[in-house]
Amino acid sequence: MNNASYPVNELFETIQGEGVHTGVPAIFLRLQGCPVGCSWCDTKHTWDLQENRKVMLSDVLVKTEESVMWCSVGPREILDLCMSRYTATHLVITGGEPCMYDLQPLCEVFEAEGYSIQVETSGTYPVMVSDSAWVTVSPKIKMRGGLSVLASAIDRADEIKHPVATVKDIEQLDELLTGSAGADAKVALQPISQKPKATELAIRTCIKRNWRLSVQTHKYLGIE
Ligand SMILES: C[S@@+](CC[C@H](N)C(=O)[O-])C[C@H]1O[C@@H](n2cnc3c(N)ncnc32)[C@H](O)[C@@H]1O
Ligand SMILES: Nc1nc2[nH]cc(C(=O)O)c2c(=O)[nH]1
Ligand code: SF4
Ligand SMILES: [Mg+2]
Questions:
Q1: 86-100: per-residue pLDDT in tens?
Q2: Residue 115, SS3 per DSSP
Q3: Does the Cβ of 199 fall within 6 Å of ligand 1?
Q4: Whether residue 32 has its Cβ less than 6 Å from ligand 1
Q5: Could you give all domains of the chain from N- to C-terminal order, each with its CATH number?
């Protein structure tokens, strides 16, 4: 099981900028690969997993800007790196789409060392994580994966963090939540790309619905 390895685009320590855990010091593990294709995605450099962009771990660790380069690393090696380089004890696994991969082996080694795990996912793949991992689903409605995969991700979600640009995005979320098992997950609206109109709409809707607002605080702060 621990022969697993993951395509790593980035590993860095910062403050969780989004969602319920905003403000928590966190290690971010960004995995390479995502076929979903959201037009407004802020991490398009993680979409393609190209063999000819595979580099050594040391090259990934010294990155200073976004790039399509990635390296293959096993769970134990990721853990050792985190323990030697960072002080945060909350690991956020993001991407790309991290649920393209079985994340159980990663959860297992990190949780055995006392780390908490959070996974950021689009709900377009089955969520393979430990029972105690915090799952943030940012649903990509009408994209790949299909409704049954999305419904089971919503069912597992601890938090639903919905990207919002227009009223249509809120209507789609309403449709998704109707009759969904994810009723106890916390719902947050996240304005797309800090656009003023999206932010105003998200604020108004959150107040009306008693939902949370998730702004990408790291972008306002100019941190990673
Ligand atoms: C880059 S995605 C990676 C994880 C996974 N693929 C997903 O979509 O949840 C991480 C988070 O950033 C959000 N996001 C991506 N681009 C954004 C943008 N331009 N504005 C606001 N949120 C964005 C996603 O919806 C998701 O909640
Ligand atoms: N600070 C910070 N917080 C984040 N929360 C979710 C992020 C992501 O890209 O998944 C992210 C990110 O890229 N940076
Ligand atoms: S699912 Fe996530 S990583 Fe993939 S395109 Fe959409 S926002 Fe970007
Ligand atoms: Mg981000």
A1: 999 999 999 999 999
A2: coil
A3: no
A4: no
A5: 6-221 (3.20.20.70)
